[in-house]
Amino acid sequence: MNFWTAIAATAVGCYAVKLAGLLVPTGALERPVVRRLAALLPVALLAALTAQQTFAHGHTLVLDARAAGVGAAAVALLLRAPFLVVVGVAVAVTAGLRAVTG
């Protein structure tokens, strides 16, 4: 399979997924269980992406400055800090540890 075939297959697959979403009956989308799952799905995906980017390097598990930054952000969230402060704390802790550890 060459490069352009892969791109075409991906485009067709994306279109098929979009079309399948449009063909779902409205009654199925109005169920309470479906509504709860649809509300929680983005949170679960973001948490999984954050965990993978924080604790993985290739195929290995690592604990480095990124983990400390996420921990500091969690503490700032528990203290009810505004979002920009949480991000700033995470960046400062991560950069500080990287500067210290080289």
Compact overview of the structure:
This protein is mostly helical and 102 residues long. It is built from 5 helices and 2 strands, in the order αααββαα. The chain has a domain at 63-102.
What does this structure look like?
It is built from five helices and two strands. The protein has 102 residues and is mostly helical. It has a domain at 63-102. Helix 4 runs antiparallel to helix 5. The chain starts with a helix and ends with a helix.
Instruction: Determine the number of helices (DSSP H or I, runs of at least 4 residues).
Output: 5
User: Which strands sit side by side, in order, in the main sheet?
Assistant: 1-2
Q: List the secondary-structure elements in sequence, H or E.
A: HHHEEHH
Task: Give the termini distance in whole angstroms.
Answer: 43 Å
Secondary structure tally: strands: 2
The shape is flat
What is the residue-mean pLDDT, rounded to a whole number? 93
Helicity level:
over 70%
- How much of the sequence lies in strands comes to under 5%
Please give the largest β-sheet: 2 strands, antiparallel
Cα-atom Rg, whole angstroms? 20 Å
State the low-pLDDT regions, or none. Answer: none
What is the chains' assembly state? single chain
Strand-pairing-aware structural class: mainly alpha
Q: Tags for this entry?
A:
two-stranded antiparallel sheet, 102 residues
List the helices and strands and how they pair.
Elements: H1 3-22, H2 26-29, H3 32-55, E1 56-57, E2 60-61, H4 65-78, H5 83-101
Antiparallel strand pairs: 1-2
Helix pairs in contact: 4-5
